[in-house]
Structures are given as structure tokens and as C-alpha cells.
Design brief:
Layout lengths: L1 H19 L24 E5 L2 E3 L2 E4 L4 E6 L8 E2 L14 E5 L4 E6 L7 E6 L1
Parallel strand pairs: 1-4, 3-8
Antiparallel strand pairs: 1-2, 4-6, 5-7, 7-8
Bound molecules: copper (II) ion.
Amino acid sequence: MHTRKIGITLVVLLIGVVFALPNCKKDTVQPTYNNPVDTTSTTNQIVISEMAFNPSSTTVSVGTTVTWANRDSLAHTVTSSNNTFDSGNITYGSSYSYTFTTEGTYTYYCKNHSYMTGTVIVK
Ligand SMILES: [Cu+2]
């Protein structure tokens, strides 16, 4: 009887932890289900790897400097569709930065591999 009560208490506690963690404002334990490859990102660090911009879309505030770091062995470019910016070839291990000073949606692509596309939304 005593053992069963402890068992039920543990189950209730576990359920409580599972439901309470995401809503807990001052928890020191980070929720573990943040997807690191979430495409709705707010990062200003974009990694070029495996022939893709990661994340492919990010939302930043006006004045943010966004940096693209190339981790592919091939050279890539970060070229805006309306020619607002153009990195030229970024070789392996190099990076390119651009500061967005005007609100808007900026689509860009790689001149060497036009199927590589990305978006920066500036708010
Ligand atoms: Cu490329």
C-alpha cells in the first residue's frame, strides 16, 4: 500500500513537471524541445553548410548585423535578389556580414548555386 502511494505520487510529480516546465518563468532547466534547425529563427548568425543557408529564414530588428559563415568546401555568395547586398565569393571558413538599416523582407540567393535561397525579415 505504501509503495503504491509513492508510485502514484511519483507519477503525479512527473506529469506536473512535464506540464509545468514550459510555463515556468524562473526555471534553471532549459526546455529540451527547442528545435535547433527551426526555420522561423531570430538569429543573426547564418551558417552556410551542405549547400544551404541555415536557418533559411530569420527575423531581426532594424540595425542588426547579420553574419553568414561558410562551412562548405565550395565557395558561395550571399546575393540579395534586388541587389541591396552582394558578398561575392565566400570561401570555406570565411564569413560575410551585412547591417540591415531598413525594414523589409530581403530574399537572397547564391550566385554559384541559384537554388540556394534565404530570407531575412527586418522589423
Ligand atoms: Cu553556393
